[in-house]
Design a protein that fits this description.
218 residues, alpha/beta, Rossmann fold, DNA polymerase, domain 1, 2 domains, six-stranded parallel sheet, 41% helix, 17% strand
């Protein structure tokens, strides 16, 4: 039976773009880097990427010094705002996590900045559902390495663990750790046509209905 479930955050558990865009516009306007405000769709294609990789794409003429300063300000603004204003938690997430947590150990691994998962947990009041979590901002490592960290420090058996996410990075990082992958097709990403997933879900609550080795997840 599958005992452990590791979740991505953005596009899997919630959508925080409306709050993130507010933080980004505030900082970018301060530094006079935008002629018109960014909109949610401007961020969608970057969801799941590491923050240091996003600004050079948006502003190819920027300098490393500018990016370091702007990233620091964006991170501070995001985490402060998210913990109170939050984002849109997908339908039936709380109910499904409650069901799953009765028979499974739950975890989060995200490419977000340090403090972002904590802000999500503070806003959602979901801390009690999760045994552990890790982020790129806290370790400086990519998602593949952070999944491995969570597996190792919690002594999780990959054969009894699945990863649930919505991007190609999620898929590649989890399968590199020999984990089965569940694709959230309601999220922000798409998968290559050759990707072989364990399952694909249209809504979060479908997780509670999946079968693993002929046994229900729940």
């Amino acid at each position: 039976m599958m005992k452990n479930i590791i979740f991505d955050l953005d596009g899997t558990l919630w959508d925080s773009r409306s709050t993130l865009i507010e933080a980004w516009n505030s900082v970018l306007d301060k530094h006079q880097l935008i002629e018109k405000p960014l909109v949610e769709d401007d961020l969608t294609k970057f969801m799941g990427l590491l923050l240091p990789d996003i600004l050079p794409i948006l502003f190819p003429n920027g300098t490393p010094e500018q990016f370091d300063l702007i990233l620091k300000e964006i991170i501070e603004h995001e985490c402060k705002t998210l913990s109170t204003k939050g984002g849109i938690i997908y339908e039936k997430v709380e109910h499904t996590l409650n069901v799953l947590s009765k028979n499974h150990d739950l975890y989060i691994v995200s490419n977000c900045q340090d403090g972002y998962i904590e802000a999500f947990l503070e806003f959602s009041k979901f801390s009690h559902f999760f045994k552990d979590y890790e982020s790129a901002g806290r370790t400086g490592k990519n998602k593949q390495e952070n999944i491995r960290l969570v597996l190792e420090r919690n002594e999780l058996n990959p054969e009894q663990t699945i990863y649930v996410g919505d991007t190609q990075t999620d898929y590649s990082s989890s399968t590199a750790n020999d984990l089965n992958f569940v694709f959230c097709n309601y999220g922000f990403g798409e998968l290559d046509e050759n990707s072989k997933v364990f399952a694909e879900i249209n809504s979060f609550d479908e997780l509670a209905k999946l079968s693993v080795t002929s046994q229900n997840l729940v």
